[in-house]
Amino acid sequence: MEFAEVVRRRRMVRDYDPDRPVPPELRERLLEHAIRAPSAGFSQGWAFLVLETTEDRELFWRATTSAEAQERKSDWLVRMRRAPLLVVPLSHKAAYLQRYAEADKGWTDRDEARWAVPYWHIDTGMAALLMLLTAVDEGLAACFFGIQPSEHPRFHQAFGVPDEYTAIGCIAVGYAGSQDRRSPSLRRGRRGVEEVVHRGRW
Ligand SMILES: Cc1cc2nc3c(=O)[nH]c(=O)nc-3n(C[C@H](O)[C@H](O)[C@H](O)COP(=O)(O)O)c2cc1C
């Protein structure tokens, strides 16, 4: 597929065919492309938790969904739960503080005030976008979604994730189901180039 078409066709899909697993070679391609993302100081402070078995995926949904939401069995949850593959991208701040304390960078105080923005989340987000684009290129559907702050401790505990890693969200992947619903947020409309771009001066 032409790159421009991949970009144009990328969108979040919220229903999956539960009977069509992601072929292993495509799963690996997503992950291989993820690690091609750029990273500050080539720190590569990221990790990816891959969940494929029914047990692992159910554990994820139980750990990251409040009892109230599970009870309610929201439409969103019912459809998202059908995704045969979940990839949780995690950022690793300590890897950046460590990398930038090395001789060629020299920030040995590891002061977080030196960081204008949290590059660890940015880089992991770039890796996530590469997975979303790769999914489109391979005829798969995907959706990046958030994990509520209150659910992080249970998520860490369920999968033995070290505390110094932060799940920036989760990517559901699979073949699109027939009951996909577009986000109501799309009614806001896409902000145009002329609205968001400032040329030369603000
Ligand atoms: C950081 C981030 C968090 C998001 N969280 C959710 C979410 O929790 N649930 C969801 O259904 N979609 C989530 N989305 C998807 C957005 O709703 C979607 O990207 C936006 O409405 C534009 O639609 P499109 O990506 O299909 O073009 C998230 C997207 C991003 C980038």
Helicity range: 25-40%
The H-and-E topology, N to C, reads as HHEHHHEHHEHEEH
Return the structural class: alpha+beta
List bound small molecules: flavin mononucleotide
Beta content: 5-15%
Global shape: globular
Structure summary, number of beta strands: 5
Radius of gyration: 18 Å
Cα(first) to Cα(last) distance is 36 Å
Counting DSSP H or I runs of 4 or more residues, the number of helices is: 9
Major β-sheet profile: 5 strands, antiparallel
Low-confidence stretches: none
Query: How much is the average pLDDT?
Result: 96
Protein architecture, described:
The protein is α+β, with helices and mostly antiparallel strands. It is 39% helix and 13% strand. Strands 1, 2, 3, 4 and 5 form a five-stranded antiparallel beta sheet that branches.
